[in-house]
Amino acid sequence: MQVLAHLSGFKRVLELMKAGKTAEATALQKSLQDEFMVQFDENETLKRQLSEVAAVLDLSECMSFDGQKYWLEEDGKREGPYCQVCYDRDATLVRLAEHDRHYECRSCHNLYMKPKLKTVTRKEITLPKTPLKEPIPIFAK
Ligand SMILES: [Zn+2]
């Protein structure tokens, strides 16, 4: 609809010029240019928003959730972990700082405990009944 209004505006400028009303034509031309600039800016903003949304959608396809934290998996490589709170709330990836027993988000300060490693007791270690290799003789016969 606005395109049609602009086209008729340009046609009117031409008619005014032909009729020798250059001052009127110039004023109309100026207002059409101003409207064009407003629409150009709006269009650029929409394009930028669209590409941001597309980037977030691309990113979400590479994200995996381990029940606590997010990981980014791309080309078989795993990056992260990233804060679940920051990603879910702000759609931003904040890499967690690793400590001995936990990870920490430096943005929202949320803590993520590392899973406890199973400690192996001496009894659980089973030795092979036969030696894997012949012992190397220390003294040559
Ligand atoms: Zn966070």
What report would you give on this structure?
The chain is built from three helices and six strands. The protein is 45% helix and 16% strand. The protein has helices spanning 2-18, 22-61, 84-90; strands spanning 63-65, 70-74, 77-82, 97-98, 102-104, 111-113. By secondary structure, the chain is of the alpha+beta class. The protein is rod-shaped, with a radius of gyration of 34 Å. Strand 5 (102-104) and strand 6 (111-113) form a beta hairpin. It folds into two domains: 2-59; 62-113, no CATH class. The mean pLDDT is 87. Helix 1 (2-18) packs antiparallel against helix 2. It binds zinc ion. Zinc ion binds next to helix 3.
Main traits of this protein?
three-stranded antiparallel β-sheet, binds zinc ion, 2 domains, single chain, 141 residues
Residue stretches low in confidence (pLDDT < 50, at least 5 long) are none
User: What's the β-strand tally?
Assistant: 6
SS field, number of helical segments: 3
What class would the helix/strand composition place it in? alpha+beta
**Helical amount among residues, as a percent range?**
40-55%
- Mean pLDDT, as a whole number? 87
Q: In order across it, which strands form the biggest sheet?
A: 1-2-3
